[in-house]
Design brief:
The protein is mainly alpha-helical. The chain is built from 2 helices and no strands.
Length: 63
């Protein structure tokens, strides 16, 4: 094999591997977002408000 040249099958295999990796990353990210959304919906509103306050860097005022 001459330096700088690849067999056509090598290129196809690299594209297939890249596409598989991209599909895995997209699937994992969508699964993460789904789980996070379901946890937020299942959490009591008080906890959700406190979590939002923590993200913004402020404390929730006592009621």
């Amino acid at each position: 094999m001459y330096l700088g040249h690849h067999w056509f099958t090598d290129v196809l295999a690299a594209w297939a591997l890249g596409a598989a990796w991209l599909a895995l990353i997209i699937t994992a990210h969508r699964l993460y977002l789904t789980v996070r959304r379901r946890r937020e919906l299942a959490a009591p509103p008080e906890l959700t408000d406190a979590a939002a306050a923590r993200r913004e860097g402020r404390r929730k005022s006592p009621e």
